[in-house]
Here is the input.
Amino acid sequence: MNADNLPTTESSSTTPRVSLLLLAFNQEGTVRRAAESVLAQLCEPLEIVLSDDASSDGTFAILQELASAYRGVHRVRARRNEKNVGIGEHYNRLLACSSGRLLVTAAGDDFSVPHRVQSLIRAWDASGGRADLIASHVIDLDHDDQLHDVIRVDDLATYTSVEQWAKKRPYIIGAGHAFTRRMMERFGPMLPDVFYEDQIMTFRAIAGGGAVTVDEALVHYRRGGTSRKPNQFDSAEHMAWWTYRQRTRELAEMDQLIQDSRVVGCDGLLRGMFEARLKKEQYLRQLDSLQTNRDRWRAFHRAAPLPRWWRLRKMLHVMLPQTTGVVRRALSVFHRKH
Here is the structure.
């Protein structure tokens, strides 16, 4: 059963203008505190959706419990996807089942400070509702729940064109973002394979109503995550799986950005920006699809415009995964000792 049918805790007859969306997946160890920080927001009444992406642990049960027990000014509900769909499609579904004009997102392992949403709303209002994305700084949080330094993101107000974005992408962290519904409706749903939404949201905003950065650290941001490269791979198969997954995620980001660029008529700019990376991806896909080393050597020679050493290294990785795995593990041990 799809948990969108669960009862909603409502304390206001009017529709909130801001929705706070918590995205969680297999985070039963952190999701209670993350959700509690969302429910404790000190601001105007919000629509709060606690959403689980078909976790296999107790994540959704915790979200259900908190939504049922909540008594306060916000409208709260818990819901879940019937099957795991990933970050891009999870965003799409939350857009479809929420109603706010401004959407604030939170992760199931990050913690929002009590005035986070209020600060984001004030910045949005100060822009006259023009800004399509409001960012903030975050505080580094390690896996032992220890806080470290503030991680400062770039001032997005200084980015006034997609050409400027393409020349030097801003440093941003999606965990601190709020964005408008109108922006998402203009560009349409994200591709299902999208995992890195940060730059996609930023590009969309700069191409539209613009973006601003609140000069405050409003989120305790968990280090690492599934995109971080492991210190050591368990096997050659593990290394190949991780590498393929990361390439798929990076390609999905590029595909989405190129698709979005067509909406605003700058697809030539984006294609030029990604041309070299797309050629590399084409070569890597060829290597993966070919069955014999002879065919791989042919692909190596056909891809001559790409750097020779890079082509050779990638081909050897496909041909001799066990060997390259041993070399990487040896180098990892060497670097740890030195």
Q: What stands out?
A: Residues 5-12 have pLDDT under 50 and may be disordered.
